Amino acid sequence: MNRILRIPPVFLLLLLFLTGCVKKEFEAYYARPDNLAQPIYQQLEARKNFTSLLACIDKAGYKEILGNAGYWTFFAPNDAAFQKYFTEKGISGVAAIDSVTSRKIVSYSLVYNAFRKEQLSSYQSTAGVIPNQAYKRKTAYYDFVQTESGETRKIVASNRNGFYVNGDNNNKYIPYFTKNFMDYKGLTASDYNFFYPNSTYSGFNVADANVVNADIVAENGMIQEIDKVVTPLPSIEQYLASNPNYNDFRLLLKKLSSYISNADLTHRYQVLTGSTDSVFVKLYISALAFSPNNENYLSGGTDAQTGGYTLMVPTNAELNIYTKNLLSNFGSFDAAPPEILNDFINSHMWTTPVWPNRFANSVNFQSEVPTITTGNITDKKLLSNGIFYGTNKVQEANVFRTVYSKPYLDPRYLLMTKALNAELKYSIINPNVKYTMFMMPDASIRAAYYDFSTQRNAWSYTAPGVATDYTTNARDRLYRILQTSVTQPNTDLTDLSGQGIIEMYNGEYMKYDANKLYASGNIDNGNYLVRDSAKTTINGTVYYTHEEIPTGKTSTGGLLTFTTNGIGFHINALALADPTSFGFFNSYLIASPIWDNTNKAIVGTVSGNFYTILIPTNAAIVEAVKAGLLPGVKATGVPTFNSTVPADRDLVVRFLTYHILNKNTVVPDGKKEGAFATLLPNSAGDPTFITVINQLNNMELRDAFNKSAKIILSKSNNLSNRAVIHSIDNYLKYNY
Predict the structure, then answer these.
(1) Which of 56, 371, 486, 668 would bridge with 699, disulfide CB 3.0–4.6 Å?
(2) Can you tell me the distance from the alpha carbon of 129 to that of 380, in angstroms, rounded to the nearest whole number?
(3) Within 13 Å, how many C-alpha atoms sit on residue 290's CB side?
(4) Is this prediction's pTM over 0.70?
């Protein structure tokens, strides 16, 4: 049976009374404190000098956002600021500002999170707050779908360098300048006024506005009152597109971009607008220093607070004059290897803000300082993602003005360029270090049986009648030739009309005589290169040559190539051609325990190492026999080359090895001197030494007893396999 619960009326009244008391206590406990500042919107209302801004907030639809919850910094232009704005725009008042413009003004002045003046200079890094580093903050404003000149498709800017991340709106940043930041960076009012000549640096500026009332506390953030309306700054790409003076550079830059359809953006755009258009992300190649449409910085995180990009752009006239000369061998960037355009654009890009007083020492993406000065700057803008400088001069990349430029900018030298890129590029593009380079045209490289296989991504060597070699041996052989075609650093050989010997990049030597050029392989084959012409660059001279092959001799493909014969082979040949200078030494050598007749090599030398062979004349060796340093008749000095006596054989080994400088080549060029280790170890196993006193065309040698010998110049500087052979007028005595 159901029973009805009956509650007396008195109890109900009591229950209602108690419930009301609890509610009042709850509301009193959680009520908004009387001393809490009003939200941003209400604060602006109360101050009575933000009427135009409030109207813009209403039109933009931000009243609810700024009048309630949130956490913002609002750079708020006062009514006086709007009066300036109305005058500049030629409008009567705020009624003439539409909702789109209102949104731009309000959202670009609205920064995420609340910051007092002193906090704005702090960089909110992933490692924690770093003081005095920041000069920008992310705003609530971003561009969404746009079109651009010459394009009908709907475009969204990239929000990363080289790629796009969905969900990141690519919000713009607003710059400001606090005393803490400026002092820490060593910047002054002149740096600020370089960009804003009509504004006064006050120690707290937002773009070209002054903060006239700082740190106004609100419930939902902080208000910084400013005296000028700051509208969204363009990105570097947007400014470039807006100024026809830089149209030719913009078109070159566009060649490095692409448009990629994005399903998420397309769906979002179609839902918002009802359009059926697809949306594309405009991306720049990852090889660029940065994407000029990217509002973020390097990581896409908070690093944009402290960093920004810099782009220096020459005017159309200056660019066309420069590139016409630059591309004289190709005709256009389209006909040239793509790396040339990449290098040209990257040379004008800095991944740091280049402030005026730091201009000369700021290195670009290619680690090069500007070749222009602040005097060449005709246009300067501080933009949302960095700095733009318009210039009346092109930034000259090192790859376009050093010895490297000559093969790089000539289609006849594509293979040489590829080899240089792998081996020597970053040495020879240093404008402060001199080099001489001998050109290696593709035709000559192929005539010497070398080539590059793009399919295998490897160098090849195809000798006649032999299977093609794709191993590293082919690569190493070609690189050896390449390094024999470039001199050592700080060597600019401007005249080949005389005679001389020059150390090349790899430590081997090349000789020249009346504009004829010889490396060790050329000498073996009996051919030589002949100078055709020369070009001067900022860091040295480049020579163009052709090969001459005397009757009965062999071509080396028109290159300065190396010998494959051993040191012993060349000593034997010298002895045969000039027995008075080299004969006795050679006879002792081939009869000694250190002679390898099969390979024509000296036991104890190592393939790939460098050596200098000092060969006393026959007359000097006669004196060594008399001194008891070599087997023979001491009274007359007649040598005994084939002694079987162990002590005699040991004398020969000691004498020969003491006359070989170990792991070093030294020629009379005035460069290398001092104590050099020989191939002879002492009884403790340590090296013995010879002292070299070196002057141009005159080299003196001193042994362990300070006895002197001099090279005979006309008989010396003979090239071998990573070795040089000299004739000397005296023997050298070891202290053993």
Answers:
(1) 668
(2) 31
(3) 30
(4) yes
